[in-house]
Amino acid sequence: CSFSIVWEIDDDGHIYREWAGRSIINSCAKLAYPMVQQMIEGCFEPDSWQIQLFNGVTWDQIIFDCLALHGVASRLRSARFESGALRLNNTRLSFALDTGGNPVSTSPYIQSEANHLVEEFMLLANMRVAGIISEAFPKHAMLRRHPPPNERKMAEFKVAADMLGVKVDTRTAGALQESLRKLTEACKDDASREAIMLLATKPMQLAQYFCTGEAPEPASWGHYALAVPRYTHFTSPIRRYPDVVVHRLLQAAIELGQQQQQPDNADLLSAPVATEAQLPTPAAAAADGNGQSAVASSTAVGALAALAPPAPPAPSAALTDSTQQQQQQEEEDEESAATAAQEAAAVAILAQHQIP
Predict the structure, then answer these.
(1) What is the C-alpha separation between 259 and 276, in angstroms, rounded?
(2) How far apart are CA 44 and CA 32, in angstroms?
(3) Global pTM?
(4) Pick from 61, 10, 73, 14: which is nearest to 279 by CA?
(5) Stretch among 107-116, 162-171, 302-311 having the lowest mean pLDDT
(6) Closest CA to 86 of 178, 203, 186
(7) In Å, what is the CA distance from 281 to each residue of 18, 79, 274?
(8) Residues facing residue 19 across a β-bridge
(9) Helix (H, G, I), strand (E, B) or coil at 208
């Protein structure tokens, strides 16, 4: 049994509805990055891969899905960098092994558009789950934050870049990304470009896991490189223990939502998969469960006003300040009691999942 997050999403990556919960994934094929890259480039030949398909799907359907995901991922990626995300593309090595598992040669590992496809949806899932668990458990969620760069080392990097004749803007992650992008386009010397990238990496601090209860100010939860307010690790429980903890938190958040009778959008699991863009416009994102817009016409508003009971009379001028203060205090007490009850319910569910 795994955890999945399912979205109703448009071509630009706008999410209209989502469902998160335990699932059993019935895969229709086992793909690899080179296969998907060939689909993107329009040169995929199924017969050359000898891959078995399951659940009655065809290669045409798989190619359609991969290209649709690629289109959404490309727009998500563009939006991320327009919002100020930073990526330092340092060279990674790929090793060729002999039959005994010993390395015999190396080569640079080149990331393709297929890699970016998977990366964007992985990041999106991590960000959405971070929002779910931190809203459910503001004092108990495990997130991952990335502090801003070390200011002293960043100043040293800027001086070193100036000495190499390269002007960089280090004010924000987005400004640094734009400077490095221009550098990559203009620099003809691979060695110099690699040196600049390594120097830019040096001021970066390590990302860290933390409990939101230890950092009560949400402003300190952000991820500098991704330029997002909340982030966690959800997508790799087979190789990272923090993801297992996040899965437990997500299950607890789902149970808390069920107690509070929150809608779970479970109908998304049985909805037909679109073969073309058939989703509502962003203006209709606030539509109710029947797909009707939440914006009423002036005629409907007038009719509702005619049926509504008369408005209560305005407060009397004789209402004293002490009475107003008493009412305000009662409202604050009711709000505090409701918050305490929600916190108690959250703690009880966390205890059931052995999460401190």
Answers:
(1) 37
(2) 12
(3) 0.77
(4) 10
(5) 302-311
(6) 178
(7) 16, 18, 15
(8) 6
(9) strand
pLDDT digits (tens, 9 = 90+) for 7-60: 999 999 999 999 999 999 889 999 999 999 999 999 999 999 999 999 999 999
Q: Which amino acid is at 60?
A: D
- DSSP H or E run through 142: strand 142-145
Tokens coding 286:
């606030």
Count CA within 13 A, CB hemisphere, residue 302. 3
CA 187 to chain centroid, in Å, comes to 33
Instruction: Please compute Rg for the chain using Cα positions.
Output: 26
The distance from CA 225 to its chain's CA centroid, rounded to whole angstroms, is: 13
Return the DSSP state at 269.
G
The encoded tokens of residue 106 equal 């190396």
* Helix, coil or strand: residue 336: helix
For residue 356, what pLDDT is reported?
A: 59
Contacts of 38 (CB under 8 A, 6+ apart): 44, 45
DSSP 223: B
Q: What is the pLDDT of residue 321?
A: 64
Any alpha helices (H) in 137-225, and if so which ranges? 151-163, 173-186, 190-201
Q: How many residues does the chain have?
A: 356
- Biggest CA–CA distance in the chain, Å, is 92
Q: Which residue is associated with the tokens 């997002």?
A: 228
Backbone angles phi, psi at 85, to 5 degrees: -75, 155
Give the Cα separation of 150 and 119 in Å (integer): 27
Q: pLDDT, tens digit, for every residue of 322-338?
A: 666 777 776 666 666 65
**Tokens (6 digits) for 185:** 């386009």
State residue 179's pLDDT score: 87
Give, to the nearest 10 degrees, the angle between helix 241-259 and helix 113-136. Answer: 50
What is the rounded distance in angstroms from the CA atom of residue 247 to the CA atom of residue 355?
A: 11
Token duo for residue 241? 């223990």
Separation of CA 55 from chain center? 29
How many CB atoms lie under 10 A from the CB of residue 153?
14
* pLDDT tens track for 236-257: 999 999 999 999 999 999 999 8
**Which of 71-80, 126-135, 304-313 shows the lowest mean pLDDT across its residues?**
304-313
